[in-house]
Amino acid sequence: MMHDVLIIGGGPAGATAAVLLAKAGWSVAVLERAAYPRRKVCGEFISATTFPILHEIGVGESFSNLAGPEVRRVGLFANHLTLSAPLPQPAGLSLGWGRALGREHLDLLLLEAAARAGARVWQPWSGIELHRSKNGYICSAGSTGKGTRELVARMVIIAHGSWDRSLLPLKPKSHEHSDLLAFKAHFRDCDLPSDLMPLLIFPGGYGGMVHSDRGRVSLSCCIRRDMVQRCRRQWPARHAGDSIVQNIQNSCVGVRQSLKRATLDGTWLSTGPIRPGIRTGYSNGVFLAGNIAGEAHPLIAEGISMAMQGAHLLARRLITHQNNLTPGALCSLGAEYSAEWRECFEMRVRSAALFAYLALRSNIIALALPVIAGVPSILTVGARLSGKAQIRVRQV
């Protein structure tokens, strides 16, 4: 069967594109290697700027029923400092405030919406090889116990994570002591205020906390590889995640107070190294969406929102030009999509890189904290720079 488009990766970006294209009458196949529901390292917060997309693809009400409480304040926990400031709300948006939802619920919600819209979901199937053919692309896919299949499509969207094995010839990643590894866990009986999402600054890394679904608090962080090793040596009898959160509590009074009565819900997750930066939206005839196209440091809590908003940009362009998708037209469309992606998200990526650079340097933090303590509204400005007040969605 010849599909109009094959989407490799069924996370927030892939599923969003699949719903929109399928609703527009496209024949869509989605290849997702993981079995859902699945937990995943992620901050879980979704900005209110993304709510129009959730409603457009038909999951807005379900998201509202499942997600945690509204986040109205952004905060900072660093050393003995515990600050908060109002979170900016997009002007004219009457859909409330940002909220968090675990990826085991969100990803399933989105991919089921894609299937209802008419997309054919191959799960759990992994892409093995991708070849160009006379009429488009042939993707060899495999699944344990089910053998291999060939999926044929006129065009391909790659929408998996930046650390996943890619079917594109991307530059291999080397391992450095300065690499940032990502960790995440959920806690129950946490004393964090329900409307607060604090940024955590600690030796060797940064992180965040937010109330998620079912009364849980999500704590996610990025920490240098050499600091992870140091934590393991200092607390050798503990799991890596437990030693890292101990390190965070030792240096952040706010985290220590929030987790005083808390208990770990489930196990720690880890991944990485993370690779923030702007890459490309189009490569070798293939469109890219989500983190593989570009990502900001998780410090600004915009990962899911950027993935879904970027996929929305791509789907809108493809649908608008669906009557002219010759190879030459696709190349031009890829350049236009890449330029629009930069226009929408470059400020977030650059701001996040600057914030992360500052957060990872203890001498700068020592100088900056008294200033922020005197002017907490700096936190609101930072949240605004990260994109939490800009609506980029145009109806597909």
Query: In which range does the helix fraction lie?
Result: 25-40%
Secondary-structure class? alpha/beta
What is the C-alpha radius of gyration, as a whole number of Å?
21 Å
DSSP, total strands: 19
List the secondary-structure elements in sequence, H or E.
EHEEHHEEEHEEEEEEEEHHHEEEEEHHHH
Number of alpha- plus pi-helical segments? 11
Estimate the mean pLDDT confidence: 92
Q: Point out poorly predicted stretches.
A: none
Ends apart, CA distance between termini: 26 Å
Shape: globular
Largest sheet: 8 strands, mixed
User: What is the strand content?
Assistant: 25-35%
Structural notes for this entry:
The protein has 396 residues and is of the alpha/beta class. It has 11 helices and 19 strands. The strands form 4 sheets. Strands 1, 2, 7, 8, 9, 10, 17 and 18 form an 8-stranded mixed β-sheet that branches. It has a 7-stranded mixed β-sheet with strand order 5-4-12-13-14-11-15, sandwiched between helices. The two termini are 26 Å apart.
